[in-house]
Every structure is written in structure tokens, then in C-alpha cells.
Amino acid sequence: MPKTPGYRKRHDRNQAIVTLTDAATKRRRDYWLGEFGSPESRELYHRVVAEWEANGRRLIDPDFEKPAAAGPGGDGGPGGSGGITISELCARFWRTRAPQFNENEQGHFKALIRLLRRSYGSTPASAFGPRRLQRLRDEMIRDDAESGRRGWGVTYTNAQVRRLCRLFKWAASQEIVSASVRVELLAVDPLKPGRCEARAGRVVKPVPVEVVEQTLPYLASPVAAAVRLQLLTGARPDEVLSLRPCDIDTSGGNGVWVVRPERHKTQYMGHDRVLFLGPKAQAVLAPFMDRPPGAYLFSPAEADAERRAARAAARKTPLSCGNRTGTNRKGEPKKAAGERYDARAYYRAVQYACDVAFPPPLPLAKRDDETREAWRMRLASTGLKAASTPGGKSTGGSRTSFATRPRPSTGGSTAWRRRPSCSGTRAPASPMRSMPSAISRRWQRSCGRWGRFGAFARRRRLRYGRQLALVLRHVDHRVPRCAGPV
To answer: Is 379 inside a domain boundary?
Structure first.
């Protein structure tokens, strides 16, 4: 896709301009945007580029906004020359309605308001009509290199347009703008897959039950019970995670437990939600019913205690050595397990279990010496092929390439490099593996990614680097030198 012209400053004036090129005639024209760096000039830049894209990348009239301003509801119409702006309307809407939305809905409105204010923040709200809505929708489906946002799909774009109409509906109910503005916006037809430039959304299919069964052994017992209960009842995640003993009616004569969740998705619409638990679901909940009536059944604190107990049981160090169980915990940790799971924590727990149950092949797995960002870049650059070390050998998932390890300064010593022996036999192991383990760990902690920043870290790196140089002097004789070139 051709590159979008950038926002820039004219060399001899403090004015912002953008240079557009006609796709057919290759003619170029500068469009003046106003004072460089001002919010108004940046908004006009996005509007000019959107109009140019909508016109098939053909040059547009510099006064392209005047016809819209002279029409009904425009800047020159009744009440269009003044009044509240889009930015003020969005701020007032957010203060009033955002507390009533859940976290997901707040995120959707944040993305919409951010895009709306960037292009039409200083525009009067009464001047926002169908034409400008279509230009904003074109911005939604286009990739944004400035913020790194990927263009939205057909379904999500239509949903965001409906949210925008809800915003103006609320403004009309508060007598901030005329109700005719929302009526005009509703005249814009929604996007249809295959008939627009927006990408079609993928269909999310259900996960096979076999995959779920393979993942269950790697989940904590509260999370595994929640997953099994969802499979048996078809309940939503939040309905299962918010269960308490007081929400479950076990007094039924037919042996079926009845659950009426305290809150659910369609509660604001006046709908009632009832879950019925049979013998299998009751067997899943039985280990979690021995708690106070107001406590949640599935607790992250219990999952954390279970994880710590499993690690203590798998301990190899004798109890007479090292730390005893519970002695090395922080009194006030930054993050502590909560009393119940939310949807995000539930999702992360399942995701971690899937990573363990279905690891990637060794050439594609994350190495010990690379960050997640470096891992993603490596996979993208190789096209999901096995990566190779500088020596040409493929490295596995948990193996660390010697060539990619950090090499500290050793005061001119050449013993750090691997050298083949003169007799053709394999070179000995790296001095890093021959040095005392305590100095090796201390050097790795200070010179690794945790000790790269700050003057204190630099002093530690220098001090341990000197200790490493002393060790390398003692192991230098272990590495044979070649008599001639190899």
C-alpha cells in the first residue's frame, strides 16, 4: 500500500503543510493546515488525508469543507457556528456515562473517542454530519502508522459507528445538540463484507472438547473446576467465577441445585438468569462448598497456595539447607492473590496452561536468552522457520546459543573464545561453565538484563567483571592454543 503523506513544517514559516499527489496525473499540491504543532492543524491534516483517500487519492479542493458547512446542520447553519465542540461533548459524555459501562465497553468507547477527537476535536458537535461520519469510518478501517493501530474489521467498525450514534443520542437527550444530528447519522448504511475495503472478521469457532481435556491437568484446581462447570452448564465465565454458597439453592426435592447469579450480562435488560446443576456439576462443586456463605467458590488465593505446596513437595534441597517454607516471602508484596477470579485472570490462567500443554516445536520456542519481543521478531523474520546460530546449527527452545551470550571484558584475555584444538578434537567447555557457580550467577545477574541501567548497576558490573577476569586467568591454561591458523 502506498505511503501516506506526512504532517510537516514549511521551511520558511511556522506553518504546517501536507503535500498530496494525484494518483492519475502525478501532480502535487501543498495544503496549508495552520500553525505547526497546534491541535487544530493536526485535526485538519487527518481530515485532508481522509478526504484525499476517499477521493481515490485524487487531488481535492482546498475548500472541500465549505459545502458541508453551508448545508443543514453545518458550521454555517443554525446553531452550527458555535456551541459545544466534539472534544467537550466526549468529555461530558465520559464523565456521565463511563461509570455505568463495564471494563470492555469502556475500552471500546476509549478507542472511538480517541479517533474522533484526533480528527474532529475542535469541530462543533452540531456540524458533525453523515459526510464526516463516513470519513471517520474510513479512518477506522485504515491502518494507522502513527499509533501502530491495525485497521478495524467490518463487524467492529459497524459496532463503533453504533456507539457513536449512541453518544449523539445521549447528547440529544441532554439537549446538548439537536436530535436531527443523530437522525442524519443513522442515514449512513453499515459496511458489508466483500463490498468495502475493510477486512472481514474471522469466525471464532468452539474449542474441541479433546483440547479442553488435554489442558485440564495443567490448570489449578479452582480454574479446572470452573472450566468443567462451564462445560456442564453452558454458563458465562463471570457467572461461574462469581458463584458463592449463598447463591446455590440445594433444597430442591428433585436433587437438582438451582443457581440465581447475583449479576449477569442481561440483568440491565430485566432478564432473569437461572442455572440448573445436575449430579455431575454437583460433584465438581462439592470440594468447594465447605466455606462461609458469602465467600467465593473459586479463589486465586487457594490456587496460589496449591502452587506453592506443589513446589515445596518437589523440593530437592534438604530442609536443613536453604530457605524454609514461607520464610522468604515479602510482607507486603506488590501483587497479591485476590478473593475471586475476574475474566482477565481466568483467561490468563487458561492461556498459561495451554502454553504448557501445547508447547511450540523446539526451533520455534522462546529461548532462554531472548525477550518476548525478540522472540516475535525472530519468528516474523524467519517466516516461522527454524532459526540458526551464526555457526549454522539450529538452537532448540530451552537451549542457549553460546554465540548469543553476553561477553564481558576480560582485560585483553582471549580465553573467552572457543578455539578448536590443534589435534582436531573438540574444544573444551566454556570457561563460564568452569568458573565457580556463585560468581557465575552473580555475574549473570549483574550483567544480564536486570543490571543494565543505573550507575549502581554499572559499578556492580565492573566489580564482578574484575572477579570474572581473575577466574579466567586461572582457567586460561585449560584452553589449548593452536600453533597455526585454523
So the answer is: yes
